[in-house]
Amino acid sequence: MSARIVLPLAFALSACTVATNEAPAPEAPVTSLPAVPDEPFHEACEPWDDWDKPARPFSLMGHTYYVGTCGISAILVTGEEGHVLIDSGISEAVPNILASIRSLGVDPRGIKYILMSHEHFDHVGGHAALKAATGAQVIASAAAKPVLESGLVAADDPQANVDHPPFPGVTVDRIVADGGTLELGNLKFTAHATPGHSPGALSWTWWSCNLPGEPPVCRRMAYADSLSPVSADDYRFSDHPDVVAAFRNSIDKVRFLQCDYLVTPHPSASGLIKRLRDGTYGEPGECQRYADKLTKALDTRLAKEAAR
Ligand SMILES: [Zn+2]
């Protein structure tokens, strides 16, 4: 029986308020997604930047858009033969991200690849739902693959003993190695393995160009991973010299990334709100300054461990 015949009958029953043994009300059709705020990102998100607080999407540069929430990045890059999304945020934020994408006039089903920064629930927790909504292929590093597929943090992750909530697992369609590239029509992304914060962490670079009708300008975009020395209470980075060496190597990579515009998985980690508000977003040296900050944080952490 078609829905056309069922629905009028169900609506008639639910409208009859005096009837007993009524059939359950029909499921409300999905007519709206969460509202996208009117205020610009740096105004709406300045007072508080919770991971699930909706944010207005905006162009970071040309056809590269911020479509994440106030507290967690999701980056949409649109192309002539399909689009690419980097990171999905927490699973609860997926409706916000889809609403943001649609508000840009982009059909989510045009997304062909979903990339990742690092394999923690706050950046890949929405991958399964977004893969289902878009039909996109999921791209991950080899180390992150089992984490994405199980929804459980890896045993060798500094945050292995942190009480991370499990997230919905998702099948990884393709592994990308350090220096590997991903091409889709006029888009080309380069993966940079940047382990440290997590074993499978990736940073990404690509070119973004102005939209048709604007001056013909292209810029180098960098999505550099978190690289913050956060861990479970019982974990000491200094007990893992290999991890510390990889960490420093990753920070060095970030320092020399092609980087006219920097965005990070937590926008606050690189002061995105402040840079947008002050008009300093895109000033030369963003990745170098970010690398300096990361080095300082790692050195501080190791000094604290040494003093214990
Ligand atoms: Zn993390």
Describe the structure.
The structure is a single chain. With 308 residues, this protein is α/β, with parallel strands linked by helices. It has a single domain (37-307), classed as 4-Layer Sandwich (Metallo-beta-lactamase, Chain A), CATH 3.60.15.10. It is built from 9 helices and 12 strands. The strands form 2 sheets. The chain has a 7-stranded mixed sheet with strand order 1-2-3-4-5-6-7, with helices on one face. It has a 5-stranded mixed sheet with strand order 8-9-10-11-12. Strand 2 (64-66) and strand 3 (75-77) form a beta hairpin. Helix 7 runs antiparallel to helix 9 (286-307). The protein is globular. Residues 118, 120, 197, 226 line the site of zinc ion. The site of zinc ion has 4 residues, from loops.
- The portion of residues forming beta strands comes to 15-25%
Number of helices: 9
Give the integer mean of the pLDDT values.
Answer: 89
CATH architecture term: 4-Layer Sandwich
Oligomer: single chain
Any low-confidence stretches, pLDDT <50, length ≥5? 1-31
Helix fraction bin: 25-40%
Task: Choose one word for the global shape.
Answer: globular
Number of individual domains: 1
At a glance:
The protein has about 300 residues and is of the alpha/beta class. It has helices at about 5-15, 40-45, 95-105, 120-125, 125-135, 145-150, 240-255, 270-280, 285-305, and strands at about 60, 65, 75, 85, 110-115, 135-140, 175, 180-185, 185-195, 200-210, 220-225, 260-265.
